[in-house]
Amino acid sequence: MRRLLKRHLPDHASLAANRWLAPFGSTLLHPRLWHLNRHSAAGAIAVGLFCGLIPGPFQMLGAAICCLLFRVNLPLALFTTLYTNPFTIVPIYIAAFSIGEWVLAPGVGQFTQPPEWGSAGLVAWIIDLTHWLIGLGRPLAIGLISLAFVLAFSGYLLTRLAWRTYLIRHWRKRRAHRP
Question: Residue 63 burial by CB count (10 A; 0-12/13-18/19+): exposed, middle or buried?
Fold first, then answer.
């Protein structure tokens, strides 16, 4: 895994020489951002899963900032944010809305159908649509935050468990081959 990542990722010298990244050179070249071990990998997975639910194009920026704060593997966190894409975003947001409805008291965040295009005109329909979207906001926001924490926590634990399982198997295999 390390060889594959090192082959495709830029080295420190090319990052330091980049004129766009030069002002951030001392921060971006911190060794813990590029080192891959069980702690940085698990933290990067958690950061990527959490920041993947940030709406809009700010997912990778949020993941990069969190990586700088927590000193976890930057490339792995950026790659992990890609689980939200145009194919998966709608089911994820529907699940987040359902979680938000479940967390809130029943009846507070009930889903209602969007307003129909009627004879009232475009302006009235846009106003009705705006009120409908505002009604979705609270359950969706609470659901996104709840889902982000659950995904980050479970991703962290599963990564640590998978890494530990791999190490134990490797140790046993190595012990079995000893004379």
Answer: buried
